[in-house]
Amino acid sequence: MSDKKRLGFALCGSFCTFEKVLAEMEMLAKDYDITPIMSEGASSINSRFGKAEDFCRRITEICGKAPITTIVGAEPIGPKALLDVLLIEPCTGNTLGKLANGITDTAVTMAAKAHLRNQRPLVIAVSTNDALGASAQNIGRLMNAKNVYFVPMGQDNPKTKPASVVAHFEKSAEAIEAALLGKQVQPLFE
Prior knowledge:
- The protein has 8 helices and 7 strands.
- It is α/β, with parallel strands linked by helices and 190 residues long.
- Helix 1 (18-28) runs parallel beside helix 3.
- 44% of the residues are buried.
């Protein structure tokens, strides 16, 4: 049995960030036993950024196990207390809205709900074009929620996408470590 902490690593469909996110997953796999989770969209949609099948294969290689891709597959995370910490990276505006409003209709939102019932930390790495627009209220709600933490983030292109925010994925490990101690990494916006 491994003495590594158990990290759930959940991916939503911000496909343009997948290369950076998978690089971060590789780094985290050195220190954590990772259970990968993918939203149904992330695990099945082919985009201009790559084929879903290829991403699923790479994730399986990195983690040594296939990603959980269904609500039924994610539900046991809570009752079996399978994770020490859950990271949602990238977390889309759609998923932010669902989390903030208690909607559990994807593998990722079920994983979050199931995990939070154990009062363990959930870390969110935002990636959405409307973070400073329609999603701002959901980010605010989640910042005020118990056991929810954020990877530091910033505007990725303020001139042409003024409401867009992306997490600094390279700070994920720091955010996870702080969350395990019940702390939020600061500064949150850089």
